[in-house]
Amino acid sequence: MTDELLLTFNTGSSTVKIGIFRVDGGRPERIGKAVIDFASRPLTLHLKEGPAQFELPLEGAAGDDLAELMDEVFRELGTHFDLDAVTSAGHRIVHGGDVFDGPVELTTETLAEVRSLTDLAPLHQPQALRMIKAVRHLRPALLQTGSFDTTFHATQSDLVRRFAIPRAYHDQGIKRYGFHGLSYRYVAGALAAKAPDIAQRKVIIAHLGSGASLCAIENGISRDSSMGFSTLDGIPMATRPGWLDPGVLLHFLGSLGKSVEDVEDMLYYKSGLLGVSGLSGDTRELLESDSEEAREAIDLFTLRIAGEVGRLASTLGGVDALVFTAGIGENQPQIRKRVAEQLLWLGVELDAAANENNAVTISTVASRVAVHVIATDEEQMIAEECLSVLRAKDQPAA
């Protein structure tokens, strides 16, 4: 009997991560993964099947219509996996607004609602919609589901989500939503498995990658986060600025005469660590550089992370644990060390050797705050949510 397979698509602004999962009646088990960087030339499918890795060149282009490219990708995947056994496909969708409170089947109706939220996530939402459309074109009968980065944060209070602007705009949806929710949900679950006593307490998770944010969690529930209305908010990122005085935007658009398009391009692609350093948005390159600008970019990054930990601790009324995750958080001891040094006042104390080795627990016994490093897995979360929708659909009506 052929195992049931499930695909996941984690589509970012310039990449797509594809997960291939086997379903045997329980939790989805990853059997393969693939990545395409849309910005690279030539396009290449980086495929991992068990311990084996493949670099497969692609002839298609990453344009507005991804159907031709994904047809080629499916053919390549089909030489390694039995795609006839695929019963469903789950997609990461950045913004669910106040419309969605959990994963959903992507029907004509729900897709229209997803599309209506594009203005709230102009960098990410269109890419997810293109991918959904391409998969539907190739496999019209395949059940597709959407998992939203915002739904994890729906538990935040109205007060936390509110901006100090006229109430009518809040009622129209201009509020703090929070993002990276799939990552936070996974890491919160992993922490509960590793340290259940700590997971029930006051925890701050730092998702540090090219996109970066922090989240305050109490008993596994989101209470506050650094990102708000958009993915530009919060701490500095690879190419995004984080917090920015609204007066700066008025100055750009007014006195400096910049267009909305120019400002948008600058905020999404030319700011953050890249903007400050003038060198790179990659912390690995910045840590290796001797330039003063590179050092300043790293100093600003870690200063803002530590400052946000303090703010989120205020929301929680304390903090019992700090968790680092995502590419930078999981793999860069120097960044964790610099953040921790600025949190000595909070009682954070790292074990130097454990930190250098990227151990799961990197705090000392004497540290008043437990510090952990936990790898995130957004694709696993998408797969689990996709399966939950599929199983619910198969249940007979009461």
Brief write-up:
The chain has 398 residues and is an alpha/beta fold. The protein is built from 16 helices and 13 strands.
List keywords for this structure.
398 residues; alpha/beta; 8-stranded mixed sheet
Describe this structure in words.
- This protein is of the alpha/beta class and 398 residues long.
- It has helices at residues 67-78, 108-116, 125-138, 158-161, 167-171, 181-194, 196-199, 246-253, 260-269, 272-277, 283-288, 292-316, 326-331, 333-341, 352-356, 378-394, and strands at residues 4-11, 15-23, 29-37, 44-49, 52-57, 86-93, 104-105, 143-148, 202-208, 212-218, 221-225, 321-325, 370-373.
- Helix 1 (67-78) packs across helix 3, helix 6 crosses helix 16 and helix 12 packs across helix 14 (333-341).
- The chain is globular and about 55 Å long.
- The protein starts with a strand and ends with a helix.
- The mean pLDDT is 93.
Average pLDDT reading: 93
Query: Biggest sheet, in brief?
Result: 8 strands, mixed
Helical fraction equals 25-40%
Global shape? globular
Order of helices and strands: EEEEEHEEHHEHHHHEEEHHHHHEHHHEH
Distance between the termini: 31 Å
Q: What's the gyration radius in Å?
A: 21 Å
Give me the count of strands.
Answer: 13
* Unreliable runs: none
Count of individual helical segments? 16
Identify the strand order in the major beta sheet. Answer: 5-4-3-2-1-6-8-7
Secondary structure class reads alpha/beta
Residues in β-strands, percent: 15-25%
How would you summarize the topology of this molecule?
Blueprint: E1 4-11, E2 15-23, E3 29-37, E4 44-49, E5 52-57, H1 67-78, E6 86-93, E7 104-105, H2 108-116, H3 125-138, E8 143-148, H4 158-161, H5 167-171, H6 181-194, H7 196-199, E9 202-208, E10 212-218, E11 221-225, H8 246-253, H9 260-269, H10 272-277, H11 283-288, H12 292-316, E12 321-325, H13 326-331, H14 333-341, H15 352-356, E13 370-373, H16 378-394
Helix pairs in contact: 1-3, 6-16, 12-14
